[in-house]
Design a protein that fits this description.
The structure holds two protein chains of two kinds.
Chain A lengths: L1 H19 L9 E2 L4 H6 L4 E2 L3 E6 L4 H15 L5 E6 L2 H5 L1 E2 L1 H6 L7 E6 L2 H12 L6 E7 L7 H14 L2 E7 L10 E7 L7 H5 L15 E9 L5 E8 L4 E3 L17 H5 L8
Parallel strand pairs in A: 3-8, 3-9, 4-6, 4-7, 7-8
Antiparallel strand pairs in A: 1-2, 9-10, 10-11, 11-12
Helix pairs in contact in A: 6-7
Chain B lengths: L1 H4 L21 E5 L17 E3 L20 E7 L2 E7 L1 H5 L8 H7 L4 E4 L2 H15 L6 E4 L3 E4 L11 H14 L4 E5 L3 H8 L5 E2 L5 H5 L11 H9 L5 H6 L2 H19 L16 E11 L2 H21 L2 E12 L4 E12 L2 H13 L11 E13 L9 H20 L4 E6 L9 E5 H9 L17 E9 L13 E4 L2 E14 L3 H4 L6 E8 L4 E7 L17 E7 L2
Parallel strand pairs in B: 3-5, 8-9
Antiparallel strand pairs in B: 1-10, 2-7, 2-8, 3-4, 6-7, 10-13, 11-12, 11-13, 14-15, 16-21, 17-18, 18-19, 19-20, 20-21
Helix pairs in contact in B: 11-12, 12-13
The chains are: A alpha/beta, B alpha+beta.
Chain lengths: 276, 562
């Protein structure tokens, strides 16, 4: 009798634990970033329907924006994106340029921008938007250290994201990381374009003249927190044409796009590439 | 009143939906769509309420106090003379009249209290009273400086008839200390003429000439010159003037006066211009006891939304713009409007939009001593195209997104939720236009953006400054070349990579050569950050002062690359 009761209790506890524990099977879908070692570290890619945080210092806002745009592009290539930002961030780090988004391979038609007056209304709007399952991702851009974005707020965002399946991306510029319920946390810096190749170095370049053209955007992405795995730091390159991240290529130009008949000197000869 | 409706009843019938209770509580729906309606046909009865200048208003003197009350006047400056603008009863008894110089008035009555006229405050008060009068009819027109026209066609029975309506309006305003003169007549001018002489008159259609005839010509309000002229000609009453042949009158006093006269006699009507466009649908709830609790207010709005949706649904319509109007017992009126990107057809949607809006108000709805009337009006409606939802996922998604946009817009304002449309311009800052998402979501989803060039790194920055920011460039190797270093926001950047120049000329055909040509460079600094910088103006040709000497170029940061 007693033993039977204990057994029942144990089985009930077991089933409750099974329901409550986020097992591997009912873990959210993962979207591969395209960067092999980062994907391996993230066990297949970036989880959707959770909260991800991206931190950057004030003067790295361009790179961080590009990285977040890349994540959003990976997570939902064909679904609308809501980008919530504060009024003054237009002045602080520039407005999001639609032609810039196009250049990154994203679709400006799927972009709805919300200009919130303050952090509170921004948070509220982001939570609202996260409840709308027709969206692909919601980006909340917050400038500086704000006390409103605490553990409770991030928990709310996470719950909203889990309920609807929409991924929340929080872009924190000029902020220091504080505890949150984020699945991953990244610190992003701009990375150098690949150095000019040997041929370029042998060319008698004009003194102090910049050499070697640049290629696709590159990020120095540091994964400082990962709820379900180890962390790491990688140089990632964003492939605008394929709309995915990748390992940095050794060549300044995207290799795939280089025509076969391209004259050798065209690539290396010019110390300053002429704009098209 | 029966014959008053008579012949024209069909043309201007306005349908008001069932009236459950007269007096204490009534909810009704009004539709413009049915039976022609108010907006097209001239109104039949008008009740202009003539209200004296606010500052001159005193409560009617009580018998006992009359002797102690000192006369007070309002003065205004007119052609460098300070003249009396308005008077109270005591001042009239003292023998003063409007238009008298203040000095003369002081001589007549030394113990005068003088106030300065404040036309702006008067206009505001008149507007507030008009807001309050919205409870009687949606068609309220201002007749500055002191008058209001109310088109009460089809509204009077809600208040127990014209006599009762006149009483309610007059009493309520008198209680607040206004001197009121009101009348109801078939034409607005006739009603106004009646108020200038006596209050509380109700004239049936066709009887205007008879009613207006005995009044003095000044009641027409035709201006000082005309009135004096008529009096000199021996025409003392309106009846006298009407007895003359029209051509005689118009030859002497212009045809405008003849028109005014004929309107006053009920032989024609000038349309009034209501302050607000007539909403397509109105539903409202009156309370015998004012309500002040949030629960009741929310519940009332929900009920009204349901009634409104039922009324709209019958005609297959949905609301694009909604307004909730709260009439407070003390006369203050607060209206709250929400907009929707798509026609709203569900009561819970209306309810949610208003809840978002009410929650986000900077100055929350203040019930004071309570609201005695809550009204919900659909200002703009559209025919709803029913779409099959379940099979077409994208339609469903679009609906959800536009509902989300409506909700956010209701809370933080429609201009803060934007989508972008491509513009036909090669100038970077003008190549996209941010427009409210509520109105342009469909256009933005279908917009054709220029394609990116496959195989190229990004040619345009991800972040673009609205105003390019000035940077300090010490020197460039060659005048047309890129800089080696620059200072932006007090930080120095060493340029290690450059692409460019990309020359973008301004629209010379628009700006008579004011804007300079820009040479854009994509540069990367030693830390790997990428900037889009430009030099404003071309050396030799554009960067010259009046004397033709070259001036140094200015450099700007226009954007940041990812």
């Amino acid at each position: 009798m007693n033993g039977a009761r204990t057994g029942t209790l144990a089985s009930l506890r077991g089933s409750i634990a099974r329901i409550e524990a986020p097992s591997e099977t009912n873990m959210p879908n993962r979207v591969a970033l395209g960067h092999t070692s980062a994907d391996a570290m993230l066990r297949g890619g970036l989880a959707s329907a959770v909260l991800h945080e991206v931190f950057a210092s004030g003067h790295q806002s361009g790179a961080a924006t590009g990285f977040v745009a890349g994540l959003a592009g990976r997570l939902s290539p064909r679904k609308p994106l809501v980008w919530v930002r504060q009024d003054f961030s237009d002045r602080e780090s520039g407005a999001l340029s639609m032609s810039g988004l196009t250049e990154l391979g994203l679709d400006p038609r799927l972009m709805v921008t919300v200009r919130a007056a303050d952090v509170d209304s921004g948070l509220r709007t982001a939570a609202d938007a996260l409840a709308c399952d027709a969206l692909g991702a919601v980006v909340l851009e917050v400038w500086g250290d704000v006390r409103q974005l605490d553990l409770v707020a991030s928990r709310k965002l996470t719950l909203a994201a889990q309920a609807s399946g929409v991924t929340a991306l929080v872009l924190r510029i000029a902020a220091t990381p504080i505890p949150s319920t984020a699945e991953t946390r990244w610190i992003v810096r701009a990375a150098h374009s690949p150095p000019g190749n040997a041929a370029s170095a042998s060319m008698p370049a004009a003194p102090s003249m910049p050499a070697a053209p640049w290629g696709a955007p590159r990020f120095d992405a540091e994964l400082v927190r990962n709820r379900h795995g180890p962390v790491g730091r990688w140089i990632m390159e964003w492939k605008c044409d394929e709309c995915q991240f990748s390992e940095p290529s050794a060549h300044p130009q995207p290799v795939a796009a280089t025509p076969a008949h391209r004259p050798h000197h065209a690539q290396v000869g010019a110390e300053q590439r002429l704009a098209g | 009143m029966a014959q008053n409706r008579g012949s024209q009843a069909e043309a201007r019938e306005v349908v008001r939906l069932p009236l459950p209770l007269a007096g204490s509580e009534a909810s009704e729906a009004r539709s413009r769509g049915w039976g022609g309606g108010l907006s097209t046909s001239p109104a039949e009865e008008r009740a202009p309420t003539r209200i004296a200048s606010r500052d001159a208003i005193r409560p009617p003197p009580h018998a006992g106090e009359a002797k102690e009350e000192l006369p007070s006047v309002v003065v205004a400056k007119d052609h460098n003379a300070i003249l009396l603008h308005a008077l109270d009863e005591a001042a009239i008894r003292a023998g003063l009249s409007i238009g008298l110089p203040l000095a003369n008035a002081r001589a007549i009555c030394p113990e005068l209290t003088v106030y300065d006229a404040d036309p702006a405050a008067d206009a505001k008060t008149l507007n507030d009273i008009a807001d309050w009068c919205d409870r009687f009819t949606p068609l309220v027109a201002l007749d500055p400086p002191y008058g209001l026209f109310l088109d009460i066609t089809g509204c009077a029975h809600l208040f127990g008839g014209e006599r009762a309506l006149l009483q309610i309006a007059t009493n309520a305003l008198t209680r607040r200390g206004f001197a009121v003169s009101a009348a109801i007549a078939g034409t607005s001018i006739a009603a106004r003429t009646l108020t200038r002489h006596t209050s509380g008159k109700i004239v049936t259609a066709g009887e205007e000439a008879h009613a207006v005839g005995p009044l003095p010509v000044a009641a027409l309000g035709a201006g000082e010159a005309v009135t004096t002229g008529l009096r000199r000609a021996g025409l003392k009453t309106i009846g006298d003037v009407a007895a003359r042949a029209p051509h005689e009158i118009s030859a002497r006093f212009s045809s405008a006066f003849t028109t005014l006269l004929s309107h006053a006699l009920g032989q024609g009507d000038a349309p009034i211009s209501p302050r607000k466009p007539l909403p397509d649908y109105i539903v409202e709830k009156r309370f015998a006891e004012p309500v002040a609790t949030d629960t009741v207010i929310t519940l009332t709005l929900q009920n009204l939304a349901r009634t409104l949706v039922t009324a709209m649904d019958r005609q297959g319509k949905g609301a694009r713009q909604l307004e909730a109007i709260f009439f407070r017992t003390d006369g203050a009126v607060r209206s709250i409007a929400v907009e929707a990107g798509r026609p709203v057809t569900r009561p819970e949607m209306i309810d949610r939009l208003f809840r978002e809006r009410l929650e986000s108000l900077n100055d929350p709805l203040d019930p004071g001593f309570g609201f005695d009337l809550i009204r919900l009006a659909a200002g703009r409606t559209e025919i709803v195209v029913q779409q099959q939802r379940d099979l077409d996922a994208s339609v469903h998604d679009n609906d959800e997104i536009s509902a989300l946009i409506d909700r956010i817009a209701a809370r933080i304002g429609g201009k803060r939720v934007v989508v972008h449309l491509p513009m036909e311009s090669h100038i970077p800052e003008r190549s996209a236009l941010a427009v409210p998402a509520q109105h342009h979501l469909a256009a933005a989803t279908a917009a054709a953006w220029p394609e990116r060039i496959v195989g190229e790194p990004p040619l345009r920055p991800l972040r673009l400054f609205d105003r390019p920011e000035l940077i300090n460039v010490p020197f460039a190797t060659v005048p047309d070349g890129p800089p080696h270093q620059f200072t932006w926001r007090r930080a120095q950047h060493e340029v290690v990579r450059v692409e460019g120049p990309e020359r973008i000329a301004m629209e010379w055909w628009k700006q008579d050569g004011q804007a300079l040509t820009r040479d854009y460079f994509r540069v990367e600094d030693a830390a790997g950050q990428r900037f889009w910088i430009f030099r404003d103006g071309l050396y030799e040709s554009e960067l010259r002062d009046e004397a033709g000497k070259p001036i140094p170029a200015k450099w700007y940061v226009h954007g940041l690359f990812a």
